[in-house]
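Take a protein:
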Amino acid sequence: MSGNAVDEQMVLSGVSVAGTNEFGEKDDRLHNVNLTIAPGEWLYLVGVNGSGKTTMARLLAGLYEENLMGTVNRGFAGESASPIVLQQPKAQLFGESPREEVRFALEWRELAPGSVKARTAEALEMTGLTELADLPWEKLSGGQLQLAAIAASAASRTPLIVFDEVTSMLDDANRKIVLETAEHIHRSGSAVVWVTQRLDELKPDFRVAALAGGRIIFDGNVRKFLYGETGHDSLCQSSGLRVPYLATLAMQLRQLNQLQDPLPVTAEEWRKVMGHFAGADSTARYT
């Protein structure tokens, strides 16, 4: 492992992580993975349970696994481990309140003492926790606990942050807040790896890597992942994930020649499509 240039890509080459299944048989958690991440990029990492997502997330965060083979060049992310926000926030909260948690994270990263107070206040404001900063954990909701974990992870302004299925146990309101917070972190310059099984979280302008059986079976554009090529099945079906309802509808309309590529993904794109239908266009396009 080498490299810490701020403009250098993170590169995984031929990476495998050996493991065994419940019967003691050889069952690699990752197999011959090749992946790059650019500085400031947003990468979705998707797959079903057991596909290797969590092993990959930990590896990208710099938490190296035993039985690791291949080469990992962390590039812009540097040699130190990157923050990773977990599905269960209680598993990574060590302070007694959001303020203490953020301060602890900054001190652990050896931030100059004179900067800790201001950086803590900034992280709490970004996550909407300023008024709750000194409450004990039992006074906070699950979504607020997750935001506290994000605040602590983001406060150091590291070049990479990994989110490992952080919305899977949240209601829609808290999921929206967490997503918007992650997007704010991304706009501030950090690269984001967003691990999820919820394909409705994917945005078309970002890249997605899909895992199945410890292998990357797709690495490319979100729209192509959802819709494949005309006349072919959605590529996300190969990863075992359920195609979202609206994506299924779009492909059905394409088969009926009522929609043309590129098919819509976002709510705004769908509004444009429905506007065309309302206008009785013979062939609807959102562009």
The first strand starts at residue 10 and ends at 17.
